[in-house]
Specification:
The chain is an all-beta fold and 375 residues long. Helix content is 2%, strand content 39%. The protein has two helices and 28 strands. A four-stranded antiparallel beta sheet has the order 4-28-27-26, with no helix packed on it.
C-alpha cells in the first residue's frame, strides 16, 4: 500500500482527489500542516502579466517544439496530427494552424497517442525531429524528418497502458535527448531498473544510453509514477512534474541515479532511500502535466486543477512560494513551453475526453495561449 507522508510545501485546499492522469476521483482525508522553513526564498512570487490567444480550433494538443526558423510544430494526441502553427503574412496577421503530417503508427487510446516532440540541437545538419507516441504494443521514441515518411523508432518497449504513459521529450543543456515515461498502471515497474516504465531516460540522438548515465542504461532516474513535465533552470537543475495517486502531485528536482519513491511513497516520506519532492499539491487542485522555465520562473500547466502554478527560482535552491494563476479561466491546461521570443505558450486540453462538469470550455477550444510573466 502507498504510504502518504507530509508534504514539504503545499497549496491549501478543502478536499483531495485521487487521479490516474487526473481522473476517477475519490475523496481522501484533509491535509496535515507542512513542516516549517524547508526552503530559502527567492524574490517576490511571479504572476501572469498578460494573456493572448494565438491559435484556436486544435484538438487535444500535447506538445510544442520550434524549428530554427521560428515555426512551431504542435502534436495532437488523439488525431495523430502534427500541426504547423505560424503567424500569417503581414503585420499583426493572426497565427494559423495547418496539418503537416499524420503519424499512422500512433495508436490513441486512453491517455496514449501522439505526445512528445523535440527538435534536434543539430537540426541545420541532420533535419531530425523526435516524437514520443503510443502504438498497439508499446510507447516508443522515434526520429522523423519534416515532409518525410513514417518515423524511424530509436527506442521501443516502453510500457503502454490506458493511463500513465509519460510522453514528454526535451533536449537538455548537454544536447542529449531526455524522455519521461509512466509506470503504465503498474507501480512495480518504477522500482525495476531493467524496466523502462516509471523513469526519466537520457539518450543520444540515436537512442543509445548517453555517456555518464548512472546505470550504463537509458535510465537517468527512477521511482516515478507518471512524469509529464521536464525543464531546466539556468543553474542546470532539471525540474519535473509528476502525477500522484491518492493525495499529492509533485514538483521534483531530478538527479541522476536517484530513486523518487513510487510506489512506496507518495509525496514526501521519512525514508532516506528516496528523494523528497520540493513541492507537493493536492491532486484535485493540480494534476500538472507539461512545464517550462521562463527566465527564473518555473511554470506548470495543470489539467484537473485548470490553472498554472508558478514558482520563482533563485540560486542555491532558493524558491518563492508557489502562486496559482488563471484558475479555471481557460479550462484544462496540458503544456507550457517557452517560445523563441521568451513568451510562454500554454496549450488548453478541453477536447481530451476529461472536460466534464466543472471544466471551463470555450467554443474556440482547443487554444494556444501566449502569456507573459512579471512580478
Amino acid at each position: 500500500m502507498t504510504r502518504t507522508r507530509y508534504p514539504l510545501i503545499i497549496l491549501l485546499g478543502l478536499s483531495l482527489v485521487a487521479c490516474t492522469e487526473d481522473g476517477n476521483p475519490s475523496t481522501v482525508g484533509s491535509q496535515p500542516p507542512p513542516p516549517p522553513g524547508v526552503t530559502a526564498q527567492a524574490s517576490a512570487p511571479p504572476k501572469v502579466a498578460s494573456v493572448d490567444v494565438l491559435a484556436k480550433g486544435l484538438r487535444a494538443p500535447w506538445a510544442v517544439a520550434w524549428l530554427p526558423d521560428g515555426t512551431a510544430l504542435v502534436t495532437e494526441r488523439d488525431t495523430k496530427r502534427i500541426m504547423r502553427v505560424a503567424q500569417g503574412t503581414g503585420h499583426d496577421a493572426p497565427f494559423t494552424a495547418s496539418q503537416v503530417a499524420v503519424i499512422d503508427d500512433a495508436d490513441p487510446h486512453g491517455e496514449g497517442g501522439l505526445m512528445g516532440i523535440a527538435v534536434s540541437p543539430n537540426y541545420a545538419q541532420d533535419q531530425l525531429i523526435f516524437l514520443y507516441y503510443t502504438t498497439a504494443n508499446d510507447n516508443r521514441i522515434a526520429r522523423w524528418r519534416l515532409g518525410g515518411g513514417q518515423p524511424e523508432p530509436i527506442v521501443t518497449g516502453i510500457p503502454a497502458a490506458g493511463n500513465h504513459n509519460g510522453g514528454r521529450l526535451a533536449i537538455g543543456p548537454d544536447k542529449f535527448l531526455y524522455a519521461s515515461t509512466g509506470d503504465a498502471g503498474s507501480g512495480r515497474r518504477a522500482q525495476d531498473l531493467k524496466d523502462l516504465g516509471g523513469k526519466v531516460l537520457r539518450m543520444t540522438l540515436d537512442g543509445k544510453p548517453a555517456p555518464g548515465n548512472p546505470f550504463n542504461t537509458l535510465v537517468w532516474s527512477y521511482g516515478h509514477r507518471n512524469v509529464q513535465g521536464l525543464a531546466w533552470d539556468r543553474w542546470g537543475k532539471l525540474w519535473a512534474t509528476e502525477f500522484g495517486t491518492n493525495t499529492w502531485d509533485e514538483f521534483n528536482v531530478i538527479e541522476p541515479g536517484k530513486n523518487y519513491g513510487w510506489p512506496n511513497v507518495e509525496g514526501a516520506g521519512n525514508d532516506n532511500r528516496f528523494v523528497n519532492p520540493l513541492f507537493t499539491f493536492p491532486t484535485g487542485e493540480s494534476s500538472c502535466s507539461g512545464a517550462t522555465i521562463a527566465g527564473d520562473t518555473f511554470i506548470a500547466a495543470c489539467l484537473r486543477g485548470q490553472r498554472l502554478i508558478l514558482v520563482g527560482l533563485g540560486p542555491d535552491g532558493a524558491t518563492s512560494q508557489p502562486v496559482q494563476q488563471l484558475i479555471k479561466e481557460y479550462g484544462r491546461l496540458r503544456a507550457a513551453v517557452t517560445a523563441p521570443d521568451n513568451s510562454v505558450w500554454v496549450l488548453t486540453n478541453n477536447h481530451d475526453g476529461r472536460c466534464n462538469s466543472g471544466c471551463t470550455k470555450h467554443p474556440d477550444d482547443d487554444r494556444i495561449l501566449k502569456i507573459t510573466v512579471g512580478d
